[in-house]
Amino acid sequence: xxxxxxxxxxxxxxxxxxxxxxxxxxxxxxxxxxxxxxxxxxxxxxxxxxxxxxxxxxxxxxxxxxxxxxxxxxxxxxxxxxxxxxxxxxxxxxxxxxxxxxxxxxxxxxxxxxxxxxxxxxxxxxxxxxxxxxxxxxxxxxxxxxxxxxxxxxxxxxxxxxxxxxxxxxxxxxxxxxxxxxxxxxxxxxxxxxxx
Length: 196
Fold this sequence. Notes:
By secondary structure, the chain is an alpha+beta fold. About 20% of the residues lie in helices and about 35% in strands.
């Protein structure tokens, strides 16, 4: 048995799951509704206050789908009950991020501001980092896949560079820093040394 696939999914209060014969799964909760087309070969059943995913056989295909289906259903339940967030740090002198009319406006060192229209179901919020007074952008939504894709697209606008760390980075991202040129050529002997 798949270690992930065999784990039951707790069903929070206020969340309902419906499964069609063709594998269409719909989750409804306080945050909204998500519908996904999953493999109809997997058996998804609601047993009391939990969801159990089982596979019909031990074929490699079914073994692979077992854990995947369980994870996708679990993400749907989490999304409609609590939602997902991705936090981005905008770092750089003069860099700004502001939300106007639901759209995001980024000033990240280009000659023009970059406007980002949110994907359906995505909301942007901005705050200020109390340590360096740089903008913090929060991307929220009920679909984990869409939230992650939106965050990746925004990060791509200005990827963090390794020398000063300027750019847009995930809050939990570790940027491998590089040292710049440590001194002018000629110092410390060589051709630029003192003549005898």
